[in-house]
Amino acid sequence: MESVLEIRYALDTFYFLVSGMLVMWMAAGFSMLEAGMVRSMNTVEILTKNIALYSIACIMYMLIGYNIMYGDGGSVLPGLGFLVQGDNSVQSVLAGGEQAPYYSSMADFFFQVVFVATAMSVVSGAVAERMKLWAFLLFSVVMTGVLYPVHGYWTWGGGFLDQLGFSDYAGSGIVHMAGAAAALAGVLILGPRRGKYGPGGKISPIPGSNLPLSALGTFILWMGWFGFNGGSELKVSDVESANAVAMVFANTNMAAASGMIVALTVSQLSFGKADLTMGLNGALAGLVAITAEPSAPSMILASGIGAVGGIIVVLSIVALDKMGIDDPVGAISVHGVCGVWGLLAVLFSSPEASLAGQVVGIAVIFAWMFGTSLALWLGLKAVIGIRISEEVEYSGMDSSECGMEAYPEFMGAKGGE
Protein backbone atom coordinates (compact mmCIF):
# COMPACT_ATOMS: atom_id res chain seq x y z
CA MET A 1 0.00 0.00 0.00
CA GLU A 2 2.78 2.42 0.89
CA SER A 3 4.62 1.82 -2.37
CA VAL A 4 1.42 2.47 -4.36
CA LEU A 5 0.83 5.76 -2.53
CA GLU A 6 4.44 6.80 -3.12
CA ILE A 7 4.18 6.09 -6.84
CA ARG A 8 0.89 7.97 -7.16
CA TYR A 9 2.31 10.88 -5.19
CA ALA A 10 5.40 11.04 -7.38
CA LEU A 11 3.40 10.71 -10.62
CA ASP A 12 0.81 13.36 -9.74
CA THR A 13 3.49 15.75 -8.49
CA PHE A 14 5.47 15.28 -11.70
CA TYR A 15 2.35 15.80 -13.83
CA PHE A 16 1.50 18.96 -11.89
CA LEU A 17 5.02 20.34 -12.40
CA VAL A 18 5.09 19.59 -16.13
CA SER A 19 1.66 21.18 -16.54
CA GLY A 20 2.88 24.26 -14.70
CA MET A 21 5.92 24.37 -16.95
CA LEU A 22 3.64 24.39 -20.01
CA VAL A 23 1.64 27.26 -18.53
CA MET A 24 4.86 29.13 -17.80
CA TRP A 25 5.70 28.73 -21.51
CA MET A 26 2.53 30.71 -22.23
CA ALA A 27 4.42 33.77 -20.98
CA ALA A 28 6.61 33.37 -24.07
CA GLY A 29 3.47 33.05 -26.18
CA PHE A 30 2.00 36.29 -24.85
CA SER A 31 5.35 38.02 -25.39
CA MET A 32 5.59 36.93 -29.02
CA LEU A 33 1.92 37.58 -29.77
CA GLU A 34 2.04 41.10 -28.36
CA ALA A 35 5.45 41.94 -29.83
CA GLY A 36 4.14 41.11 -33.27
CA MET A 37 0.96 43.12 -32.81
CA VAL A 38 2.69 46.40 -31.86
CA ARG A 39 4.84 48.70 -33.97
CA SER A 40 8.54 47.90 -34.11
CA MET A 41 9.43 51.01 -32.09
CA ASN A 42 7.60 49.57 -29.05
CA THR A 43 8.80 45.95 -29.21
CA VAL A 44 11.52 46.04 -26.53
CA GLU A 45 9.16 47.69 -24.05
CA ILE A 46 6.53 44.99 -24.63
CA LEU A 47 9.09 42.24 -24.09
CA THR A 48 10.39 43.95 -20.96
CA LYS A 49 6.88 44.19 -19.54
CA ASN A 50 6.15 40.53 -20.14
CA ILE A 51 9.25 39.08 -18.56
CA ALA A 52 9.08 41.59 -15.69
CA LEU A 53 5.41 40.93 -14.92
CA TYR A 54 6.07 37.20 -14.80
CA SER A 55 8.91 37.75 -12.33
CA ILE A 56 6.83 40.13 -10.21
CA ALA A 57 3.93 37.65 -10.12
CA CYS A 58 6.24 34.90 -8.84
CA ILE A 59 7.65 37.07 -6.07
CA MET A 60 4.37 38.62 -4.92
CA TYR A 61 2.48 35.34 -4.97
CA MET A 62 5.22 33.76 -2.87
CA LEU A 63 5.24 36.62 -0.37
CA ILE A 64 1.52 37.06 0.21
CA GLY A 65 -0.70 36.03 -2.71
CA TYR A 66 -0.76 32.26 -2.25
CA ASN A 67 -1.62 32.48 1.44
CA ILE A 68 -4.39 34.98 0.75
CA MET A 69 -5.88 32.69 -1.89
CA TYR A 70 -5.54 29.43 0.00
CA GLY A 71 -5.27 30.52 3.62
CA ASP A 72 -7.78 30.45 6.42
CA GLY A 73 -10.58 32.98 6.45
CA GLY A 74 -14.32 33.53 6.36
CA SER A 75 -16.48 33.02 3.31
CA VAL A 76 -15.83 36.60 2.13
CA LEU A 77 -12.74 37.91 3.91
CA PRO A 78 -9.63 35.80 3.34
CA GLY A 79 -6.93 35.34 5.90
CA LEU A 80 -3.52 36.94 5.53
CA GLY A 81 -0.36 34.87 5.61
CA PHE A 82 3.24 35.59 4.70
CA LEU A 83 5.48 33.33 2.63
CA VAL A 84 4.52 29.96 1.24
CA GLN A 85 4.63 27.13 3.73
CA GLY A 86 4.06 23.45 3.12
CA ASP A 87 5.10 19.94 3.97
CA ASN A 88 6.57 18.11 0.98
CA SER A 89 7.54 14.91 2.73
CA VAL A 90 6.22 11.60 1.48
CA GLN A 91 6.01 10.51 5.11
CA SER A 92 3.18 12.97 5.74
CA VAL A 93 1.33 11.54 2.76
CA LEU A 94 1.75 7.99 3.97
CA ALA A 95 0.56 8.96 7.43
CA GLY A 96 -2.63 10.34 5.96
CA GLY A 97 -3.32 7.35 3.78
CA GLU A 98 -5.85 7.73 0.98
CA GLN A 99 -7.12 11.02 2.41
CA ALA A 100 -3.71 12.72 2.29
CA PRO A 101 -2.66 15.27 -0.33
CA TYR A 102 -1.68 13.49 -3.51
CA TYR A 103 0.92 15.96 -4.73
CA SER A 104 3.58 18.23 -3.28
CA SER A 105 2.42 21.57 -1.92
CA MET A 106 5.32 23.20 -3.75
CA ALA A 107 4.01 21.75 -7.02
CA ASP A 108 0.65 23.35 -6.20
CA PHE A 109 2.31 26.71 -5.58
CA PHE A 110 4.23 26.52 -8.86
CA PHE A 111 1.10 25.62 -10.82
CA GLN A 112 -0.93 28.41 -9.21
CA VAL A 113 1.69 31.12 -9.65
CA VAL A 114 1.87 30.70 -13.41
CA PHE A 115 -1.90 31.26 -13.53
CA VAL A 116 -1.45 34.58 -11.74
CA ALA A 117 1.10 35.64 -14.35
CA THR A 118 -1.32 34.67 -17.12
CA ALA A 119 -4.01 36.97 -15.74
CA MET A 120 -1.51 39.83 -15.60
CA SER A 121 -0.34 39.14 -19.16
CA VAL A 122 -3.85 39.93 -20.41
CA VAL A 123 -3.43 43.50 -19.19
CA SER A 124 -0.10 43.98 -20.95
CA GLY A 125 -1.40 43.77 -24.50
CA ALA A 126 -4.48 45.92 -23.95
CA VAL A 127 -2.54 48.92 -22.64
CA ALA A 128 0.31 48.58 -25.13
CA GLU A 129 2.06 51.49 -26.87
CA ARG A 130 1.01 54.28 -24.50
CA MET A 131 1.43 53.26 -20.83
CA LYS A 132 4.53 54.05 -18.80
CA LEU A 133 6.57 50.94 -18.06
CA TRP A 134 6.99 51.52 -14.33
CA ALA A 135 3.35 52.45 -13.80
CA PHE A 136 2.43 49.11 -15.34
CA LEU A 137 4.92 47.22 -13.19
CA LEU A 138 3.67 48.88 -10.00
CA PHE A 139 0.14 47.86 -10.93
CA SER A 140 1.45 44.32 -11.44
CA VAL A 141 2.73 44.25 -7.85
CA VAL A 142 -0.72 44.93 -6.40
CA MET A 143 -2.73 42.86 -8.86
CA THR A 144 -0.66 39.69 -8.50
CA GLY A 145 -0.11 40.08 -4.75
CA VAL A 146 -3.60 41.09 -3.64
CA LEU A 147 -6.33 41.69 -6.23
CA TYR A 148 -6.20 38.34 -8.01
CA PRO A 149 -5.71 36.25 -4.84
CA VAL A 150 -8.79 37.76 -3.18
CA HIS A 151 -11.27 36.65 -5.82
CA GLY A 152 -9.23 33.47 -6.18
CA TYR A 153 -10.04 32.81 -2.52
CA TRP A 154 -13.74 33.42 -3.16
CA THR A 155 -13.70 30.71 -5.83
CA TRP A 156 -10.91 28.13 -5.85
CA GLY A 157 -10.02 28.90 -2.24
CA GLY A 158 -13.42 27.76 -0.95
CA GLY A 159 -14.98 31.20 -0.38
CA PHE A 160 -18.55 32.34 -0.90
CA LEU A 161 -18.66 32.02 -4.69
CA ASP A 162 -17.57 28.41 -4.43
CA GLN A 163 -20.25 27.85 -1.81
CA LEU A 164 -22.85 29.38 -4.16
CA GLY A 165 -21.99 26.78 -6.77
CA PHE A 166 -19.99 28.96 -9.17
CA SER A 167 -18.15 26.64 -11.56
CA ASP A 168 -14.94 27.52 -13.41
CA TYR A 169 -12.78 24.47 -14.09
CA ALA A 170 -9.55 26.17 -15.19
CA GLY A 171 -10.22 29.89 -15.14
CA SER A 172 -12.31 31.40 -17.97
CA GLY A 173 -13.50 33.91 -15.39
CA ILE A 174 -11.07 33.61 -12.50
CA VAL A 175 -8.03 34.14 -14.73
CA HIS A 176 -9.05 35.44 -18.15
CA MET A 177 -12.11 37.60 -17.50
CA ALA A 178 -10.45 38.98 -14.38
CA GLY A 179 -7.40 40.07 -16.39
CA ALA A 180 -9.65 41.61 -19.02
CA ALA A 181 -11.60 43.57 -16.38
CA ALA A 182 -8.35 45.04 -15.04
CA ALA A 183 -7.26 45.80 -18.60
CA LEU A 184 -10.55 47.52 -19.46
CA ALA A 185 -10.21 49.83 -16.45
CA GLY A 186 -6.70 50.78 -17.55
CA VAL A 187 -7.67 51.33 -21.19
CA LEU A 188 -10.60 53.59 -20.25
CA ILE A 189 -8.32 55.82 -18.18
CA LEU A 190 -5.46 55.79 -20.68
CA GLY A 191 -7.49 56.58 -23.74
CA PRO A 192 -6.62 55.44 -27.27
CA ARG A 193 -3.30 55.66 -29.05
CA ARG A 194 -2.75 58.93 -30.88
CA GLY A 195 -3.94 58.72 -34.45
CA LYS A 196 -6.17 55.70 -33.85
CA TYR A 197 -9.46 57.58 -34.04
CA GLY A 198 -10.29 60.63 -36.12
CA PRO A 199 -13.22 63.03 -36.59
CA GLY A 200 -16.62 61.60 -37.34
CA GLY A 201 -15.81 58.22 -35.83
CA LYS A 202 -13.10 57.45 -38.37
CA ILE A 203 -10.97 54.45 -37.34
CA SER A 204 -7.38 54.30 -38.58
CA PRO A 205 -5.84 50.82 -38.32
CA ILE A 206 -2.37 50.68 -36.73
CA PRO A 207 -0.83 47.47 -38.09
CA GLY A 208 1.52 45.32 -36.06
CA SER A 209 5.14 45.00 -37.09
CA ASN A 210 5.64 41.23 -37.18
CA LEU A 211 2.71 38.91 -37.85
CA PRO A 212 4.93 35.80 -38.14
CA LEU A 213 5.90 36.48 -34.52
CA SER A 214 2.23 36.80 -33.54
CA ALA A 215 1.41 33.51 -35.25
CA LEU A 216 4.28 31.84 -33.39
CA GLY A 217 2.99 33.30 -30.13
CA THR A 218 -0.47 31.89 -30.82
CA PHE A 219 0.92 28.40 -31.43
CA ILE A 220 2.91 28.64 -28.18
CA LEU A 221 -0.21 29.69 -26.28
CA TRP A 222 -2.21 26.89 -27.89
CA MET A 223 0.41 24.39 -26.74
CA GLY A 224 0.65 25.88 -23.26
CA TRP A 225 -3.12 25.67 -22.86
CA PHE A 226 -2.88 21.87 -22.66
CA GLY A 227 -1.05 22.39 -19.38
CA PHE A 228 -3.43 25.17 -18.36
CA ASN A 229 -6.56 23.04 -18.76
CA GLY A 230 -5.06 19.56 -18.47
CA GLY A 231 -3.18 20.37 -15.28
CA SER A 232 -6.38 21.69 -13.71
CA GLU A 233 -7.56 18.08 -13.37
CA LEU A 234 -4.85 18.09 -10.64
CA LYS A 235 -3.91 14.43 -10.96
CA VAL A 236 -3.47 11.66 -13.48
CA SER A 237 -2.63 8.58 -11.38
CA ASP A 238 -5.95 6.76 -11.61
CA VAL A 239 -8.04 5.64 -14.59
CA GLU A 240 -10.82 8.17 -14.05
CA SER A 241 -8.41 11.11 -13.85
CA ALA A 242 -6.34 9.88 -16.79
CA ASN A 243 -9.46 9.64 -18.95
CA ALA A 244 -10.57 13.09 -17.81
CA VAL A 245 -7.19 14.57 -18.78
CA ALA A 246 -7.41 12.96 -22.22
CA MET A 247 -10.87 14.46 -22.72
CA VAL A 248 -9.62 17.87 -21.58
CA PHE A 249 -6.76 17.80 -24.09
CA ALA A 250 -9.05 16.77 -26.95
CA ASN A 251 -11.73 19.35 -26.13
CA THR A 252 -9.20 22.13 -25.66
CA ASN A 253 -7.70 21.39 -29.06
CA MET A 254 -11.05 21.19 -30.86
CA ALA A 255 -12.35 24.43 -29.36
CA ALA A 256 -9.25 26.30 -30.51
CA ALA A 257 -9.38 24.84 -34.02
CA SER A 258 -13.08 25.65 -34.40
CA GLY A 259 -12.67 29.17 -33.03
CA MET A 260 -9.88 29.89 -35.49
CA ILE A 261 -11.72 28.62 -38.61
CA VAL A 262 -14.97 30.36 -37.69
CA ALA A 263 -13.28 33.69 -36.90
CA LEU A 264 -11.39 33.55 -40.19
CA THR A 265 -14.63 32.81 -42.03
CA VAL A 266 -16.48 35.64 -40.30
CA SER A 267 -13.69 38.06 -41.21
CA GLN A 268 -13.89 36.95 -44.86
CA LEU A 269 -17.65 37.47 -44.92
CA SER A 270 -17.46 40.78 -43.05
CA PHE A 271 -14.39 42.42 -44.59
CA GLY A 272 -13.86 40.49 -47.80
CA LYS A 273 -10.47 39.32 -46.54
CA ALA A 274 -9.17 36.39 -44.51
CA ASP A 275 -7.76 38.50 -41.65
CA LEU A 276 -4.92 36.59 -39.96
CA THR A 277 -5.18 38.61 -36.74
CA MET A 278 -8.86 37.71 -36.43
CA GLY A 279 -8.01 34.07 -37.03
CA LEU A 280 -5.35 34.12 -34.32
CA ASN A 281 -7.71 35.76 -31.88
CA GLY A 282 -10.38 33.22 -32.87
CA ALA A 283 -8.14 30.36 -31.78
CA LEU A 284 -7.49 32.10 -28.46
CA ALA A 285 -11.20 32.85 -28.08
CA GLY A 286 -11.98 29.16 -28.43
CA LEU A 287 -9.33 28.32 -25.86
CA VAL A 288 -10.65 30.86 -23.36
CA ALA A 289 -14.25 29.73 -23.86
CA ILE A 290 -13.58 26.02 -23.28
CA THR A 291 -11.42 26.70 -20.21
CA ALA A 292 -14.44 27.03 -17.91
CA GLU A 293 -15.37 23.36 -18.49
CA PRO A 294 -13.19 21.26 -20.80
CA SER A 295 -13.76 17.88 -19.14
CA ALA A 296 -17.52 17.41 -19.48
CA PRO A 297 -18.54 18.28 -23.08
CA SER A 298 -18.30 15.95 -26.03
CA MET A 299 -15.81 16.96 -28.71
CA ILE A 300 -18.70 18.14 -30.89
CA LEU A 301 -20.04 20.38 -28.12
CA ALA A 302 -16.53 21.66 -27.35
CA SER A 303 -16.12 22.51 -31.04
CA GLY A 304 -19.41 24.39 -30.93
CA ILE A 305 -18.35 26.34 -27.83
CA GLY A 306 -15.11 27.30 -29.56
CA ALA A 307 -16.94 28.22 -32.76
CA VAL A 308 -19.28 30.58 -30.94
CA GLY A 309 -16.20 32.11 -29.31
CA GLY A 310 -14.78 32.68 -32.81
CA ILE A 311 -17.91 34.57 -33.84
CA ILE A 312 -18.11 36.59 -30.64
CA VAL A 313 -14.48 37.70 -30.69
CA VAL A 314 -14.72 39.24 -34.17
CA LEU A 315 -17.96 41.04 -33.34
CA SER A 316 -16.55 42.26 -30.02
CA ILE A 317 -13.29 43.57 -31.49
CA VAL A 318 -15.24 45.53 -34.10
CA ALA A 319 -17.75 46.83 -31.55
CA LEU A 320 -15.08 48.02 -29.08
CA ASP A 321 -13.26 49.77 -31.90
CA LYS A 322 -16.45 51.61 -32.84
CA MET A 323 -16.85 52.61 -29.20
CA GLY A 324 -13.37 54.16 -29.19
CA ILE A 325 -11.89 51.53 -26.85
CA ASP A 326 -8.40 50.95 -28.22
CA ASP A 327 -7.09 47.45 -27.54
CA PRO A 328 -4.07 46.77 -29.79
CA VAL A 329 -4.16 42.98 -29.43
CA GLY A 330 -7.89 42.32 -28.82
CA ALA A 331 -7.23 41.12 -25.27
CA ILE A 332 -10.44 42.48 -23.75
CA SER A 333 -12.56 40.71 -26.38
CA VAL A 334 -10.61 37.44 -26.32
CA HIS A 335 -10.26 37.06 -22.57
CA GLY A 336 -13.16 39.14 -21.26
CA VAL A 337 -16.11 38.71 -23.58
CA CYS A 338 -15.22 35.13 -24.49
CA GLY A 339 -14.47 34.39 -20.84
CA VAL A 340 -18.05 35.34 -20.00
CA TRP A 341 -19.30 33.13 -22.83
CA GLY A 342 -17.25 30.22 -21.53
CA LEU A 343 -18.69 30.55 -18.03
CA LEU A 344 -22.24 30.51 -19.40
CA ALA A 345 -21.43 27.59 -21.72
CA VAL A 346 -20.70 25.48 -18.62
CA LEU A 347 -24.47 25.09 -18.31
CA PHE A 348 -24.60 22.98 -21.49
CA SER A 349 -22.55 20.13 -20.04
CA SER A 350 -22.58 20.43 -16.23
CA PRO A 351 -25.96 19.68 -14.67
CA GLU A 352 -24.69 20.70 -11.24
CA ALA A 353 -23.97 24.25 -12.42
CA SER A 354 -26.73 26.86 -12.15
CA LEU A 355 -27.40 29.98 -14.17
CA ALA A 356 -27.71 32.01 -10.96
CA GLY A 357 -24.37 30.76 -9.65
CA GLN A 358 -22.59 31.52 -12.92
CA VAL A 359 -24.13 35.00 -13.31
CA VAL A 360 -23.33 35.96 -9.71
CA GLY A 361 -19.76 34.74 -10.17
CA ILE A 362 -19.33 36.72 -13.38
CA ALA A 363 -20.74 39.87 -11.78
CA VAL A 364 -18.68 39.61 -8.58
CA ILE A 365 -15.35 38.85 -10.28
CA PHE A 366 -15.83 41.59 -12.87
CA ALA A 367 -16.98 44.17 -10.31
CA TRP A 368 -14.08 43.36 -7.97
CA MET A 369 -11.36 43.44 -10.60
CA PHE A 370 -12.72 46.39 -12.55
CA GLY A 371 -13.50 48.49 -9.47
CA THR A 372 -10.26 47.90 -7.60
CA SER A 373 -8.19 48.22 -10.78
CA LEU A 374 -9.90 51.48 -11.69
CA ALA A 375 -9.07 52.90 -8.27
CA LEU A 376 -5.47 51.71 -8.54
CA TRP A 377 -5.00 53.10 -12.06
CA LEU A 378 -6.42 56.46 -10.93
CA GLY A 379 -4.10 56.48 -7.94
CA LEU A 380 -1.07 55.77 -10.12
CA LYS A 381 -2.18 58.44 -12.56
CA ALA A 382 -2.38 61.01 -9.78
CA VAL A 383 0.96 60.09 -8.19
CA ILE A 384 3.33 59.23 -11.05
CA GLY A 385 1.25 59.43 -14.22
CA ILE A 386 0.48 56.42 -16.38
CA ARG A 387 0.61 57.74 -19.94
CA ILE A 388 3.77 58.52 -21.90
CA SER A 389 4.20 61.93 -23.50
CA GLU A 390 3.02 62.69 -27.03
CA GLU A 391 6.63 62.99 -28.18
CA VAL A 392 7.56 59.57 -26.80
CA GLU A 393 4.45 58.01 -28.29
CA TYR A 394 5.40 59.22 -31.77
CA SER A 395 9.10 58.34 -31.46
CA GLY A 396 8.53 54.97 -29.78
CA MET A 397 8.86 53.65 -26.23
CA ASP A 398 11.88 51.44 -26.82
CA SER A 399 14.52 54.15 -26.82
CA SER A 400 12.90 56.33 -24.13
CA GLU A 401 11.82 53.58 -21.69
CA CYS A 402 14.45 50.91 -22.33
CA GLY A 403 17.32 52.65 -24.13
CA MET A 404 17.51 50.23 -27.06
CA GLU A 405 15.77 49.20 -30.26
CA ALA A 406 14.47 45.74 -31.15
CA TYR A 407 15.46 46.12 -34.81
CA PRO A 408 18.31 48.67 -34.87
CA GLU A 409 19.38 47.80 -38.40
CA PHE A 410 16.04 49.08 -39.68
CA MET A 411 16.24 52.40 -37.84
CA GLY A 412 18.83 54.01 -40.08
CA ALA A 413 22.56 54.41 -39.73
CA LYS A 414 23.72 56.25 -36.63
CA GLY A 415 26.32 58.98 -36.88
CA GLY A 416 28.87 57.70 -39.43
CA GLU A 417 27.11 58.23 -42.71
Q: Any key phrases for this structure?
A:
single chain; mainly alpha; Ammonium transporter fold; 417 residues; 15 helices
Question: What does the model show?
Answer:
52% of the residues are buried. Helix content is 69%, strand content 0%. It is globular, with a radius of gyration of 21 Å. It has 15 helices and no strands. The chain is an all-alpha fold and 417 residues long. The C terminus is likely disordered. The protein starts with a helix and ends in a 15-residue tail after the last helix. Helix 2 packs across helix 4, helix 4 crosses helix 5 and helix 8 runs parallel beside helix 10. It has one domain: Orthogonal Bundle (Ammonium transporter fold), CATH 1.10.3430.
| CATH class designation | Mainly Alpha
Which structural class do you get from the secondary structure elements? mainly alpha
Beginning-to-end CA distance, first to last residue: 77 Å
Compute the CA-based radius of gyration. Answer: 21 Å
Total DSSP helices: 15
From the 3D coordinates, which CATH architecture would you assign? Answer: Orthogonal Bundle
Instruction: Classify the fold: give the CATH topology.
Output: Ammonium transporter fold
